[in-house]
Amino acid sequence: MALAYELRCRECGKTYPNTPLSICDACFSPLEVHCDLEAARGSFTREKIAQGPDSMWRYKALLPVPEDYVPATPAGWTPLLAAPRLASRIGAKNLYIKNDAVCLPTLSFKDRVVSVALANAQIFGFDTVGCSSTGNLANAVAAQAARLGLKTYILVPSDLEPAKILNTQVYGAKLVRIDGNYDHVNRLCSQIAERYNWGFVNVNLRPYYAEGSKTVGYEIAEQLGWRLPDNIVCPMAGGSLITKIKKAFKELIALGLVEEKEVRFFGAQATGCSPISTAVKTGADHIEPQRPSTIARSLAIGNPADGIYAARAIRESGGWAEDVSDVEIVSAIQELAETEGIFTETAGGVTTAVTARLYAHGRIKADDLTVTCITGNGLKTTDALAGAYEVERAVRPRLSDFEAYIEEQTEDRAILEGASVR
Amino acid sequence: MALAYELRCRECGKTYPNTPLSICDACFSPLEVHCDLEAARGSFTREKIAQGPDSMWRYKALLPVPEDYVPATPAGWTPLLAAPRLASRIGAKNLYIKNDAVCLPTLSFKDRVVSVALANAQIFGFDTVGCSSTGNLANAVAAQAARLGLKTYILVPSDLEPAKILNTQVYGAKLVRIDGNYDHVNRLCSQIAERYNWGFVNVNLRPYYAEGSKTVGYEIAEQLGWRLPDNIVCPMAGGSLITKIKKAFKELIALGLVEEKEVRFFGAQATGCSPISTAVKTGADHIEPQRPSTIARSLAIGNPADGIYAARAIRESGGWAEDVSDVEIVSAIQELAETEGIFTETAGGVTTAVTARLYAHGRIKADDLTVTCITGNGLKTTDALAGAYEVERAVRPRLSDFEAYIEEQTEDRAILEGASVR
Question: Torsions phi, psi of B371, nearest 5?
Answer without folding.
Answer: -115, 125
